[in-house]
Design goal:
Length: 560
């Protein structure tokens, strides 16, 4: 009886010992067959050392006598990296006594675990492996940012995830975008779909670990999404949601189209908090997209602010989908008209007078599911003044200054663009600029035509005390017109402009004139270009031309 017990204990202890003495001496060598008896949850461990990246194929054979009765998942082979993280694995076949596990492995040391999984039936396993050159980019371990391989734009990648055996298996990749543009991902199961089809997820993350989007592919059905992104590095893990397969194969591809980010929506404008700024008289290009699974982007958000009640015309144009637009006050106050607009054609045009305030604009398809990609163009055009329409050649400059709170026009809603501008209005408009600082170098004195009760007294006083204007004797002449040469001197002194290069020669400007240096400085800074080689120094400055000069100075200061 004692001898029988000893023999049984010996068999249990030897159940997972290598049969080959040569294999024991050298470790597990390619082509060696390891054998052992398995029982439920018993584990055998074998070291595997690779001196270079290789595709490793494990051949698994189950020697249990089945006697026509199926035995499910009787033993499994699992591969662990040096960090003791499982990177691959599969169990023996449900329908055959033989199975294979194929995996691309980076050079290094691995632990191969063989685990018995049959509670009711014991048996003997046989496992061997062969190596071959790596196939594809799915090289394990690649489940972290540090180990993520870079996917070249335009490349198709094939990979494999473990289904039943490895919990939360995932492959991590990265892509580097050279500039702003449209990135397209296409994902699908690479085997033909079957009753055991797999459900894959692909998540997209920024370098700051901000989750941007998710793409899913179920039942072998291909799916893709398109997204606008700035240049940079992005990471995307591919994971298996569920699968009854031992291993599940996938493929994905990328496409990238560089775009001018000054012409397109940012791609981040998916809600009110991340709205893009909608600029006046500037066409914005964008797109809507709807995939077959849970990814869609069919609502883009924009924002604008108006300082006064303004007539605004929106134009939203698509290729084939009927467009719709919502304009919503940011404070959710009621508008005097319905704020949802749509069209029966691919071009939507709507004009309304909007009260002063900040607004959210939502562009979207008019009807139901989009199922694919649709590009659109959105244009907003403001008309703050009755006599400055979009057709006016100086509309953009006049309207831009109006939105900055500089051009305010007259009480009747007009601007009188072609009218000569008065001196008092010059100083009032410049004084409305944000951040204007004029050093005080002298005290204000009295002028017969400028009482302290004058509406523009404080504006004019600021420029006199800064030494920019002197008046004419005892008169300031606030209602007088201003010549183009006189304006050049005021602008140069106000903004402390310096000569750049050699200036510009105008045929009607006498080089010996006292105002010539100011004209040259103005021209050298790109504030004036003249007309047909002439500056017209004695002509009165019109309100529309002054708007051009002032806006150019504002834009120049932004670039400093």
């Amino acid at each position: 009886m004692r001898n029988w017990i000893v023999r049984m204990l010996g068999m249990c202890l030897l159940g997972f010992i290598l049969v080959s003495p040569e294999a024991n001496a050298k470790g597990w060598q390619e082509g060696d067959i390891v054998k052992g008896d398995y029982r439920d949850h018993e584990i055998a461990k074998y070291p595997l050392v690779l001196t270079e990246d290789k595709k490793v194929t494990f051949s698994m054979k189950d020697e249990v006598e089945r006697e026509g009765k199926p035995v499910f998942a009787v033993f499994s082979v699992a591969v662990y990296d040096e960090a003791k993280k499982q990177v691959a694995g599969r169990d023996s076949s449900n329908e055959s006594q033989q199975a294979e596990l194929q995996v691309n492995l980076k050079k290094g040391t691995y632990t191969i675990q063989i685990v018995g999984k049959s509670e009711s039936v014991g048996g003997e396993f046989q496992v061997s492996y062969q190596t071959s050159p790596v196939e594809g980019m799915d090289l394990e371990p690649n489940n972290s940012r540090a180990t993520a391989p870079e996917v070249k734009l335009g490349e198709t990648v094939f990979g494999q995830l473990n289904g039943r055996l490895v919990q939360d298996d995932m492959d991590m990749y990265k892509v580097i975008l050279p500039s702003f543009g449209k990135l397209t991902f296409h994902l699908q199961q690479s085997e033909p779909p079957s009753m055991e089809a797999s459900y894959f997820h692909m998540d997209l993350y920024s370098e700051r670990n901000e989750k941007l989007d998710r793409l899913s592919s179920f039942g072998g059905r291909p799916n893709e999404f398109e997204i606008l992104l700035p240049g940079g590095t992005y990471y995307f893990p591919v994971s298996l949601q569920n699968s009854n397969l031992a291993t599940a194969n996938y493929s994905f591809s990328t496409r990238f189209e560089p775009l001018n980010e000054n012409e397109w929506e940012s791609g981040k404008n998916k809600n009110f908090e991340t709205s893009d700024l909608l600029k006046n008289n500037k066409t914005i290009r964008g797109f809507w997209y709807e995939g077959y699974e849970n990814y869609s982007q069919t609502r883009d958000h924009f924002k604008f602010t108006i300082a006064a009640d303004t007539k605004i015309t929106f134009t939203l144009e698509t290729g084939k989908v009927l467009p719709a637009l919502q304009v919503i006050p940011s404070d959710h106050s009621a508008l005097p008209f319905f704020s949802y607009f749509d069209s029966d054609t691919t071009k939507l045009t709507v004009s309304e007078i909007f009260p002063a305030g900040t607004y959210d604009v939502v562009s979207q398809p008019r009807f139901g599911p989009l199922r694919g990609y649709e590009e659109y163009r959105l244009l907003m055009q403001m008309e703050s003044f009755k006599d400055v329409l979009v057709s006016n050649p100086y509309y953009e400059q006049i309207e831009t200054l109006a939105q900055l709170g500089i051009n305010k026009g007259y009480k009747d809603g007009t601007f009188h663009p072609a009218q000569a501008i008065q001196r008092k209005h010059i100083f009032a408009l410049i004084n409305r600029m944000d951040g204007l600082k004029l050093p005080r170098v002298r005290q204000m004195r009295q002028f017969k035509d400028l009482p302290s009760s004058h509406p523009n007294y404080q504006d004019i006083k600021k420029f006199y005390e800064a030494g920019i204007i002197d008046g004419s004797g005892n008169y300031m002449k606030p209602e007088a017109n201003l010549t183009r040469a006189e304006l050049a001197k005021i602008l140069v002194n106000t903004f402390d402009l310096k000569l750049k290069g050699n200036g510009m020669v105008f045929s009607d400007v006498n080089p010996k004139s006292g105002l010539s240096p100011y004209i040259q400085i103005l021209a050298s800074n790109g504030i004036t270009v003249g007309t047909n080689g002439k500056f017209m120094p004695t002509d009165s400055v019109t309100r529309q031309h002054f708007s051009v000069f002032l806006l150019r100075i504002i834009e120049m200061q932004k670039q400093k």
